Amino acid sequence: MNESTYSPDILWMSEALVEAKKAEAIGEVPIGAVIIRENKVVGRGHNLRETLQDPTAHAELIAIKHASQTLNGWRLNDCDLYVTLEPCPMCAGAILQARIRRVIYATADPKAGCAGSLYQLLQDARFNHMTMVDSGILQQECASLLTDFFRKLRKKDIMS
What we know:
By secondary structure, the protein is of the alpha/beta class. Helices cover about 40% and strands about 20% of the residues. The chain is built from five helices and five strands; from the N terminus they run αββααβαββα. Helix 1 packs parallel to helix 5.
């Protein structure tokens, strides 16, 4: 995709990046997500695993909960989820359960990604729902945020 031209995907991934930076600001792994319905943000989330000491506090799950509360229902079949990192198995499962129409992720996760890297859970025809998947929107910005975060973390550990 040519990102030099405007697209709604760039706008919404920029919003997910804002969420990722919120996570970074509190020492969390900088991953952010937003859920869009009818060109409006209905759910937002960023990683809170360390803050909440909760292994399920991933950006996608927090955004899904927020969208479900906003829309007063768990079926999000007319919603799109933008996330800065490819969803893990847990998040992919929640995305399927929520019936999200489309997932757009910025950068692949070769260690845990289940939207194409390790597995393709979101488009497996054996499930009762399949989700469209796109990737690469603001890939460099989102990947750099993660790389820089972990570089600083390693440097801090070496200095301690």
